[in-house]
């Protein structure tokens, strides 16, 4: 028999947006339920040093998320280790089906499902995932001590990953399809000054090269975007750092989205195209993508959900 649970406010996602929404929802006496999802704590759990969270000069990403979870629990949020696989937003109460077999129903819903790493989409990349191809330097950098690695990308993510990998690798080659980086200047300065880093400008990854016995990466082929000339770069690890895609699979056919799947919210609001459904954090934010802005949106979502629920009761 399927277990069904009802709550005034259901929060899906456990990054800065979800936990902040939980804190504000609890303080508003809404007794929210928060469903953590596959990756409790979100992207910050695969980040090392966080240097831009107000009040913390430096803190490890996982430690920050442990503190946020503890805060949400302390003010009364019930946090559940489960994963939502389907939503029915066609009628109220809204219905969320979970992997555990439990069905959650709610009067108001906050979506804070975040974003996930983008991949290049190459067959060779897929073949060597977990065998030298990674999207997380902080997860896998340790395995490449004293070896050469390649990072592809040109934004903050790519530069941060490249810098982190210099702690382990003997050489880090950053490959970027343009002739300048999009990352913050302070990060670029650190990168250019690091003697372990070499940059291959105006190149796109053509193929990941490796062996089958044992399976492992041996290098990458990069094509010059103008001349077409191929350069082979030897490496044992290949890190893809080309940004993130919003985790909007649950709602992409139901809620209004744009910019490749980001959920559209009303101006200066977290309201979505369905009344009673609010979205916060990286699921909606294609511009800033910061923990502190996600937390701010989580606050907004909870306050707006509280007001919306009060209006429904008065109506």
Secondary structure elements and pairings:
Elements: E1 4-12, H1 16-27, E2 33-35, E3 49-50, E4 59-60, H2 61-74, E5 78-80, E6 84-88, E7 94-98, E8 103-111, E9 115-117, H3 123-127, E10 133-134, H4 137-140, E11 148-152, H5 156-165, E12 171-175, H6 185-193, E13 197-200, E14 203-212, E15 215-224, E16 230-234, E17 237-240, E18 244-246, E19 257-258, E20 262-263, E21 277-279, H7 291-314
Parallel strand pairs: 1-2, 1-8, 2-5, 8-21, 10-17, 11-12, 11-17, 12-13
Antiparallel strand pairs: 3-4, 6-7, 7-8, 9-18, 14-15, 15-16, 19-20
Organism: Actibacterium naphthalenivorans
Family: Belongs to the class-II pyridine nucleotide-disulfide oxidoreductase family.
Subunit structure: Homodimer.
Characterise this structure:
The chain is of the alpha/beta class and 315 residues long. The chain folds into 2 domains: 4-117 and 244-314, FAD/NAD(P)-binding domain, CATH 3.50.50.60; 123-240, FAD/NAD(P)-binding domain, CATH 3.50.50. 25% of the residues lie in helices and 30% in strands. Helix 1 (16-27) packs parallel to helix 2 (61-74), helix 1 packs parallel to helix 7 and helix 5 runs parallel beside helix 6 (185-193). The two termini are 35 Å apart.
């Amino acid at each position: 028999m399927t277990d069904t649970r009802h709550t005034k406010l259901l929060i899906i996602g456990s990054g800065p947006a979800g936990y902040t929404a939980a804190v504000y929802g609890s303080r508003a006496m809404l007794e929210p339920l928060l469903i953590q999802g596959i990756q409790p704590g979100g992207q910050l759990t695969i980040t090392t040093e966080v240097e831009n969270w107000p009040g913390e000069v430096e803190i490890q990403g996982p430690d920050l998320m442990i503190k946020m979870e503890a805060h949400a629990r302390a003010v009364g949020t019930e946090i559940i280790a489960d994963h939502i696989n389907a939503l029915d937003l066609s009628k109220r109460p809204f219905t969320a089906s979970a992997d555990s077999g439990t069905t959650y129903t709610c009067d108001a819903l906050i979506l804070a499902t975040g974003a996930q790493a983008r991949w290049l989409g190459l067959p060779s990349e897929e073949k060597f995932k977990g065998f030298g191809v990674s999207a997380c330097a902080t997860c896998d950098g340790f395995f490449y001590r004293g070896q050469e690695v390649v990072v592809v990308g040109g934004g903050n993510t790519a530069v941060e990953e490249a810098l982190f990998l210099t702690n382990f690798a003997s050489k880090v080659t950053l490959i970027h399809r343009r002739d300048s980086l999009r990352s913050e200047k302070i990060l670029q300065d650190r990168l250019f000054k690091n003697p372990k880093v070499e940059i291959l400008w105006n190149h796109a990854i053509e193929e990941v090269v490796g062996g089958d016995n044992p399976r492992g990466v041996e290098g990458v082929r990069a094509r010059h975007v103008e001349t077409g000339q191929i350069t082979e770069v030897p490496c044992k690890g290949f890190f893809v750092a080309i940004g993130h895609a919003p985790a909007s699979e649950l709602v992409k056919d139901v809620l209004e989205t744009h910019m490749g799947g980001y959920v559209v919210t009303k101006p200066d609001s977290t309201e979505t195209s369905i009344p009673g459904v609010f979205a916060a954090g990286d699921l909606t934010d294609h511009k800033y993508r910061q923990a502190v802005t996600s937390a701010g949106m989580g606050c907004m979502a909870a306050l707006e959900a509280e007001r919306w629920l009060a209006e429904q009761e008065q109506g």
